[in-house]
Amino acid sequence: MTAPARETEHPLPTQPDCRTALRRLRTGSGELPAMVNTQGFFDWARAQGMAALLYEWAAPDRHRLHPDFARFARQQATLEALREPEVARVTTAFAAAGLPCLLIKGAALATRLYPRSYTRFRDDTDLLVAETDRRAAIDQLASLDYRVPEAIGPAASGQCHALFRDHNELVHGIDLHWRLSNPLAFASRLGFDEMWRQSVPVPGIAAARGPCELHALLHALLHRIAHHAERDRLIWLYDIDQLYRALDAPGQRSFLELARDRGLASICADGLVRARDWFDTPVREQALAQLSGGNDDTRAYLGGDMSRGQLWWRDFRALPGTPARMRWLYAHLFPSAGFMREQFPHQRSWPLAGLYLWRLGRGIRRARSHRSARDA
């Protein structure tokens, strides 16, 4: 047995160094650089959501990695072993109640595209329901002892976050979505009913269904722009790479047609190029030309230079008619008292009118700022 390598002194990794190390770990070819045994490289891989996956790729050279890779992979394996039965409990309860739901993002892809489910890092579980089932889904989660904080309101938001603490004191988080995208400019590009009709079982999780590869790929490409303003984590780009590879030639042609039909060609081309840069995604120039030749309205979102105010204005304009716009505006300006108290716990003694003014002032300041990678 080869002894683990001693950690070496090495400056913080640069992007070219990381790209080289990533490719050699993924392909199993070439000598691994010394930097893979540094704290800086581990911290970079963890921030990118790739640490457990890189540890999996490194066999039989895992001894060359920094020891934190092994510790982190064991931690994630234990966490996923506790998390999967809880996800199954939720999906089974929804199915028994006659509530169609789809696992989306990491939870739907972990057992379908990754060598081991724990290698697809995720913070929580994302669940999508029809907008008409929003209230019933929230009540169902509450019946399973999830705590669902007061949400800003369905007119202003397409999701809420629910928490459950199990007997192991592990906190499980579920992001419940009733729109595929919180930004309204993207929300209607792919509807729940269409996704449900073409959904597929999620392996290893009872009663769970997820989007087909075609819809999952479109969502992955949409999500990185709509929610994260092109501030990519590599795990999201690897999702895109694996989903594209899962499509056969007719499937790839269908994807190109779908992207153009839904007005998402520009952002799809951008995401596929980014995935190819890092993971050699086998997308042909001809396919990119078909996507890049479109004149869809999502092109304006590329570059990540829109302020929050500009995004809010685009959301406002995307709404169908004056009544919907007034509901959206009212929901943003005057959310429920419960929501306000949840959002400002340190100002509980303030009168409600004062909280509304405080929130309005904060919103005006934020309107000129740009989104962070964690914004949703």
How would you describe the overall organization of this protein?
The protein has helices at 15-27, 39-47, 51-58, 67-96, 106-113, 134-143, 184-187, 192-197, 213-226, 234-246, 249-261, 265-279, 285-292, 308-318, 322-333, 337-343, 352-366, and strands at 102-104, 125-128, 159-165, 171-177, 200-201, 209-210. The protein starts with 14 loop residues before the first helix and ends in a 10-residue tail after the last helix. It is globular, with a radius of gyration of 22 Å. The strands form two sheets. A four-stranded mixed beta sheet has the order 1-2-4-3. The protein has a two-stranded antiparallel ribbon with strand order 5-6. Among the domains are: 15-75, no CATH class; 213-303; 309-346 and 358-376, no CATH class. The protein is 52% helix and 7% strand. By secondary structure, it is an alpha+beta fold. It is built from 17 helices and six strands.
In short:
This protein is an alpha+beta fold and 376 residues long. The protein has helices at residues 15-27, 39-47, 51-58, 67-96, 106-113, 134-143, 184-187, 192-197, 213-226, 234-246, 249-261, 265-279, 285-292, 308-318, 322-333, 337-343, 352-366; strands spanning 102-104, 125-128, 159-165, 171-177, 200-201, 209-210.
